Amino acid sequence: MLAGIDKLNFFVPPYYVDMTDLALARDVDPGKFHIGIGQDQMAVTSITQDIVTLAANAAAHLLTKEDKETIDLVILGTESSIDESKAAAVILHRLLGIQPFARSIEMKEACYGATAGLQLAKDYVLRHPGRKALVIACDIARYGLNSGGEPTQGAGAVAMLVTENPRILALSDESVALTQDIYDFWRPTGEAYPVVDGPLSNATYIDSFVKVWQEYQNRYQQDWQAFDAMCFHIPYTKMGKKALLAGLEGVDANISETLLTRYEESIAYSRQVGNLYTGSLYLGLLSLLEHSENLVPGSKIGLFSYGSGAVAEFFTGTLVAGYKQHLQKTAHQELLQNRQKLTIPEYEALFTKELTNENLAKNSDQTPYRLVAIKDQVRYYQE
Ligand code: CAA
To answer: Which CATH superfamily, name and number, covers 171-320?
Structure first.
């Protein structure tokens, strides 16, 4: 029996900044952000959107009544937790109306968390025929105003319904994971922003890809030729390309060209959104499926997941017959187009706005799920 991604959707907050505006405000050549980093727009959240609301907005439209009655597992992969103890997935479980006899948990290992969730979900549905799992990758990537990482911020969620006989991507059992204790990017408890060693994080990402890819080739006796496309974790769109180019050294020019073209298709959404941390790899997958005319049922896709700290995994999946009918390209393009562009002063005001009930009450965000109040440390949501 096969298991994998049956439904796939993303949600981004309704605001963004243009990277030319940000570059000019920071006295940087816009070419650095657009070409050097590879970002055109950056999603910005208001205080009314946290990981619960972003995740609920991504998942709500995906689920039918039957899905809600058969989901046994709700897994939220995130590194933007709102609580040290209670999992955001528990709140999400209630907001989405999922049947009560379910497990709801949060998974953390930087940008890798959702991949661990996806593998757990896949194994669960294989062992429990007819049952389903909901995996959501959701984050708000913040490095701070005027910081080195500022142009690589972003926010949003990707929701995946994992089932047997999936209608989009069947996941194989082929996978290679790698753990290395490295301080390239981390966020000590209580800190608003991560501590980042930019050059080390770039180097560790590439090194991790090369290691898992080599091990994959040895273990499964497969090489580049076996793949129709490769998706990467996308902290900024240039990063995955650097790793891909490192891996493609010495590879046949036609194969390289095909994979680089597929890579460009996989970053179309990320260029307009920025880093989703846990969600970036899956936004890349969605972008690839919704932009590529060259993929067909049976096409094999490699996925490279990377979480600083560091855990990486290379795993694979195969497109299922009829997968295109289960994508929502028009809705996704409308979601991106209907966002409001912020000036840099507006972005800075939103970024620094204090999370108080007074500010929540004044907010004009009309997104279906949103935070409306915090009383006695309990968060209340518009549902
Ligand atoms: N026109 C075109 N390109 C330009 C340019 C211009 N005018 N000016 C500079 N560039 C190019 C540079 O040549 C460089 O290209 P290469 O990387 O190909 O050499 C690129 O723009 C970036 O320039 P810098 O290296 O000087 O940029 P920086 O010092 O500002 O740092 C960064 C960039 C390290 C990504 C920083 O934004 C950062 O720390 N980001 C957060 C950490 C991160 O995303 N790390 C990625 C791996 S970790 C991970 O994947 C987990 C995660 O999600 C965080």
So the answer is: Thiolase/Chalcone synthase (3.40.47.10)
